[in-house]
């Protein structure tokens, strides 16, 4: 799956969940803390930051896995196994936690991780 297809799939999934929630792009943008035009661009397949997608998912009360076409990706990648899927789920929850931190707290987490990695 190429990036363009992936972006379109994510946008389509976000739009589907937004409509299920009966929200306009403006309303979703306000809840997620992003502009209406950002919501519209994402729904139309434009690339965005993962943190923005996470905020949108939180606003819709869905997980990142609900908008990522993991099944399509997994079907096409024969080298992916069940452990990789669990890793993706773990990473998603970490991203959601990090998204809630202040910039100062994020820097502390980043510094801690680099320290652990460099001192193995």
Automatic annotation (TrEMBL):
InterPro entries: Cro/C1-type_HTH, Lambda_DNA-bd_dom_sf, TransReg_Diox_bact_type. SUPFAM superfamilies: lambda repressor-like DNA-binding domains. It comes from the Bacteria. Keywords: DNA-binding. GO terms for cellular component: cytosol. GO terms for molecular function: DNA binding; DNA-binding transcription factor activity. Pfam families: HTH_3. Coiled coil: none annotated. This is HTH cro/C1-type domain-containing protein.
């Amino acid at each position: 799956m190429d990036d363009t297809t992936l972006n379109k799939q994510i946008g389509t999934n976000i739009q589907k969940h937004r409509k299920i929630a009966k929200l306009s792009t403006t309303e979703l943008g306000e809840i997620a803390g992003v502009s209406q035009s950002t919501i519209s661009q994402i729904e139309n397949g434009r690339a965005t930051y993962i943190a923005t997608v996470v905020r949108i998912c939180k606003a819709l009360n869905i997980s990142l896995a609900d908008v990522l076409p993991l099944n399509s990706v997994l079907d096409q990648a024969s080298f992916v196994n069940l452990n990789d899927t669990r890793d993706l789920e773990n990473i998603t929850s970490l991203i959601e936690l990090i998204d809630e931190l202040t910039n100062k707290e994020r820097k502390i987490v980043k510094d801690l991780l680099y320290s652990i990695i460099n001192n193995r």
